[in-house]
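New here. Your pick:
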Amino acid sequence: MSTVTTVRWHTVCPLSRLDLDRGVAALIDGVQVALFRTADGLYAIENRDPVTGAYVLSRGIVGSRRGVPTVASPLHKQVYDLRTGDCLDLPGVCVARHEIRCRDGMVEVRLRQEE
């Protein structure tokens, strides 16, 4: 059984740098993270597409499926739930999600690491 540990919050950018319904990649402690701002909130997931191994999810198509905020991989179009990281098209496939918040106008991310 794995446990999840979290480390410190990292300031990434001002909230104004994140366009609505567009992704952006950030390198945090050597980890590529895809950040998204939607009408529902802020989301941070691993930037690596688990199907292809390419670091492209930040360039994916942001949308929703049955009210769930999603991003579709720009390569093979698998759709991931931005809240959980689960792939909605391939059972058992997922991307790591990270904690994200806006504090004093700055976007902060705290990496989640499985041990």
In short: The mean pLDDT is 93. The chain is about 0% helix and 50% strand. Residues 25 and 34 are 5 Å apart (CA to CA). The first strand starts at residue 4 and ends at 6.
